[in-house]
From TrEMBL, chain A:
GO CC terms of this entry: mitochondrial large ribosomal subunit
Gene this chain is encoded by: NDAI0H01100
Entry's family note: Belongs to the mitochondrion-specific ribosomal protein mL40 family.
GO BP of this protein: mitochondrial translation
Residue ranges, compositional bias (Polar residues): 175-184
Molecular function, one GO term: structural constituent of ribosome
InterPro entries xrefs: Ribosomal_mL40, Ribosomal_mL40_fung
Keywords, sorted A to Z: Coiled coil, Mitochondrion, Ribonucleoprotein, Ribosomal protein, Transit peptide
The UniProt record lists the keyword Flavoprotein: no
Keyword Chaperone included in the entry's annotation: no
Record-given protein name: Large ribosomal subunit protein mL40
Subcellular location per the Swiss-Prot or TrEMBL entry: Mitochondrion
Chain segments carrying region Disordered: 151-184
UniProtKB/TrEMBL annotation, chain B:
Gene that produces this protein: NDAI0C04360
Sequence similarity: Belongs to the phosphatidylethanolamine-binding protein family. Mitochondrion-specific ribosomal protein mL38 subfamily.
Summary of the function given for this chain in its UniProt record: Component of the mitochondrial ribosome (mitoribosome), a dedicated translation machinery responsible for the synthesis of mitochondrial genome-encoded proteins, including at least some of the essential transmembrane subunits of the mitochondrial respiratory chain. The mitoribosomes are attached to the mitochondrial inner membrane and translation products are cotranslationally integrated into the membrane.
Superkingdom per UniProt: Eukaryota
Record's subcellular location: Mitochondrion
Annotated InterPro entries: PEBP-like_sf (IPR036610), PEBP_euk (IPR035810)
Signal peptide bounds: none
Molecular function terms from GO: structural constituent of ribosome
Mitochondrion keyword on record: yes
Entry keyword annotation includes Mitochondrion: yes
Primary location class: mitochondrion
Key words, A-Z: Mitochondrion
Protein name: Large ribosomal subunit protein mL38
Length: 184, 370
């Protein structure tokens, strides 16, 4: 692959990145050489990395660690660099985007209305059933609507699930445990 | 390997969408609800893969070929758009049928359904968002249609209306001329015959005497639905900052008065050259000629809806000591819009005075001589 093709492949690669510019840093392996990008800035050049490879050095070491640190720091200095680039949409795509957003909003609104109406119906149905029960058997109604579990054979609402080790304020965690103690 | 990713030029899997929905049916609906450019319309409704746009290689709104080639749409936007479009169209269909079927609907109710039918239509949104809303071309933005009036009103309320009210309040036009204003009409002014400033004036701007030497044109944009064929308007320009030395205060003078003005939703520029004769002119235009050292004078433009047409214009004694509140009350005028600009003495005032045959102005000093 000659140099021109390298540039072309780079252009294509960068074009595909423009659609998702949110990642902080990414590297791209080309001809066995790693080309690193930090905040969309290339920190190693393709040419230098390939020439380094000829010299028998690893391309990842093309920048010395202090220099790499300096590059990284410079790339984060500007506040503008910290914000991902604004997605630029053409007029047509902006209208499409707004249409999609609007449809999604209305869809969610419809779902929410549907759900609240369903809950309303359920509530009314429960209310109806309890009213009927009250007229038929006041005692059963009282048992069914009492919140504490006294006398109705139901678990109280405050009841928790039984566990192997119920919470104990004195010994929540075996602080003194050690494997040496166990061996003794 | 090529620089451009090859696009599909054959084997179009996606069929062209049939003209089935209400938004694509223009037999009963206005042509202004459609994007006039067929290429842009197809790009939005059928996506970038249609026949026209494959040869174009990108969105048609981008003018440079380089930009079109470089541009990349978000992934799957066309698929998501198709689903959303059909969903919104189904919802709009309910309102559309209501607006057609209900014969007992009031005009307001019918209009409400017409707005709901088209407010989410991407074609309407495209036409409105990317074309001039002030100097509107009825091909794109037709204010005869309730949906465009609704969008226009929202747009006006989002900025210009607030700016106007802020300027009226900070410059004390309210309550120095009229007690208050409930803005219902967008008023814009421009001095087209002047040599330098050919633009719509922002409320409260300071203008030189050269700019204001001839009468302005007014653009009265109605957003409310009313019987616009029979509605008449009155325009008054008053200057509340004329020095009144006798009473040690300021007096209001009338600079310009027009009555029985007729507009329509789209053709609404009030230009003296377009008016048929002198029958609309209550008081001819007197340009701002502030005297030296009186400071900045406010020129308040007030627009009123008339209750009915005046067969004979009301007679007023003169420009001086014009009581706008009494005039409005006597003639049953309804204030709907306003505007304001400011003027100050400058070296050109002398020429304007000569042009209109006015006496040379006074020069005010710190010590009272008159």
């Amino acid at each position: 692959m000659n140099n021109r093709q390298t540039i072309r492949s780079l252009i294509q690669q960068s074009r595909s990145w423009t659609s998702s510019p949110s990642s902080y840093s990414y590297s791209y392996i080309h001809n066995g050489a790693t080309i690193q990008f930090i905040r969309n800035k290339r920190t190693t050049s393709a040419a230098s990395s390939s020439s380094l490879k000829k010299m028998g050095r690893n391309s990842a070491e093309s920048l010395s660690p202090p220099l790499q640190r300096a590059v990284t720091q410079l790339s984060v200095l500007s506040a503008r660099k910290k914000m991902p680039r604004l997605l630029k949409l053409s007029n047509e795509d902006l209208i499409k985007h707004q249409t999609i957003e609007k449809a999604w909003m209305l869809y969610k609104k419809d779902k929410a209305i549907e759900r609240s109406m369903r809950l309303q119906r359920q509530y009314e149905s429960i209310q109806d059933a309890l009213d009927t029960l009250e007229s038929i058997n006041p005692h059963l109604y009282k048992l069914a609507t009492s919140t504490n579990g006294e006398g109705n054979g139901r678990f109280p609402l405050e009841f928790r699930l039984p566990t192997d080790a119920p919470p104990n304020s004195e010994k929540l965690w075996p602080q003194q445990f050690s494997s040496t103690n166990l061996q003794k | 390997m090529t620089l451009l990713t090859p696009r599909r030029t054959f084997h179009l899997a996606k069929p062209l969408r049939q003209n089935a929905g209400i938004w694509s049916d223009f037999s009963k609906r206005s042509e202004s609800l459609r994007i006039p450019s067929e290429r842009i319309r197809k790009y939005i409704l059928e996506g970038g893969d249609n026949k026209d746009n494959i040869t174009l290689n990108g969105p048609p709104s981008l003018k440079r070929k380089f930009s079109r080639l470089k541009y990349k749409s978000p992934e799957f936007i066309d698929d998501a758009f198709q689903t959303s479009y059909l969903y919104l169209q189904e919802k709009a269909k309910i309102y559309y049928e209501k607006s057609l079927q209900d014969t007992e609907l009031s005009p307001e109710g019918k209009e409400k359904y017409e707005i709901l039918t088209d407010i989410n239509n991407p074609e309407v949104q495209y036409n409105f968002q990317f074309h001039n809303k002030l100097e509107n071309n009825p091909k794109f933005i037709n204010y005869e249609l309730p949906v465009y009036r609704e969008l226009g009103k929202k747009h006006w309320e989002s900025y210009s209306q607030m700016l106007l009210m802020q300027r009226l309040e900070t410059l004390q036009v309210i309550p120095d001329t009229m007690p208050t204003l409930v803005p219902r009409m967008e008023v814009n002014i421009k001095f087209p015959i002047s040599t330098s400033v050919n633009k719509w004036i922002e409320p409260g701007e300071s203008l030189s005497s050269n700019v204001t030497s001839f009468e302005p044109i007014f653009k009265l944009q109605e957003y409310d639905s009313l019987d616009i064929e029979n509605q008449k308007y009155t325009i008054l320009i008053v200057n509340p900052d004329e020095p009144d030395l006798e009473n040690d205060t300021f007096k209001t003078s009338l600079c310009y008065g027009l009555m029985n003005i007729q507009i329509s939703y789209n053709d609404n520029i009030v230009d003296l050259r377009k008016l048929k004769g002198k029958e609309n002119i209550l008081m001819s235009y007197l340009p701002p000629v502030p005297e030296k050292n009186v400071g900045k004078q406010r020129f308040a433009v007030w627009v009123f809806r008339q209750e009915n047409e005046f067969t004979e214009l009301p007679s007023i004694p003169g420009r001086d000591r014009f009581n706008i509140r009494d005039f409005v009350e006597e003639n049953k005028l309804d204030p709907v819009g306003a505007h304001v600009w400011r003027s100050e003495w400058d070296s050109n005032v002398k020429n304007i005075r000569e042009l209109y045959g006015l006496p040379t102005g006074r020069v005010f000093t710190r010590t009272r001589t008159i």
